[in-house]
Write the structure tokens for this entry.
Amino acid sequence: MIQCTPIGAVGAEVDGIDLNMISDEDLENLKALFAETGLLFFRDQELSPEAHLDFAKKWGPINVNRFFTPVEGYPSIAEVRKEPHQQYNIGGNWHTDHSYDQIPALGSMLYAKELPKVGGDTLFAGCAAAFDTLSEGMKSTLRSLRAVHSSRHVFGKSAAIPDDMADLFGNADKALQDAEHPVVIKHPLSGRETLYVNPGFTTRFVGWTEKESNSLLSLLYEHISRPEHTYRFQWSKGALAFWDNRATWHLAVNDYPGETRLMHRITIEGEPLEP
């Protein structure tokens, strides 16, 4: 029987379920919980790549990431790896995946394959809870704005990718697209008003210069990442985190020098975002 433990402003830990065997009723319950919280954690799962893909496909078509190195034999699964010799990690700053796409991804499922002895946690932030705690004047201002998101400075030819991480990414020539999205979206599943900007890919507000945008963006970034809006997930082997990219941020903590951390990530297609 599914048991759910809500976690602060963002997320819920789900027990009593084997993701290899999900009934229609369990799936509907999970979808309702996902819409409500934007983030689900499952522990002690034994998922083959095929089973990981089967679970992901229950939520929508797979989005094949064009920049990450895929798992060998599974082009729909991205490999998120840090080796002992590497100083930097993937996703070590606050961001939300795929906001640079015209139709951002619904979410990502990250599955723990190999973990360091200690460390390697992931921080999550809830962007709907963060919007709720802004002043009414700020909310009104933000509802009138749109923002530009880009992958050029992260995955493009001019991106400052460390030499020891260069083999983890590819297709820099495909990092040419920019996208505009409302700063406050009506979340497609929950209907909640949700902030949709992030430090990883948002570059400026539409009609504003980057210099003009930086002060307000910095204020929003500081607000979203406040402790009351965040949760720190401690991984264990076989754990899976499924987050909604329209409702959350995440940050992979890089505190395990000289050790390996290997995760498999599947991303699910989303839908256009509306204010």
Helices lie at 24-37, 49-57, 127-132, 136-143, 152-155, 210-224. The chain has six helices and 17 strands. The radius of gyration is 18 Å. The mean pLDDT is 91.
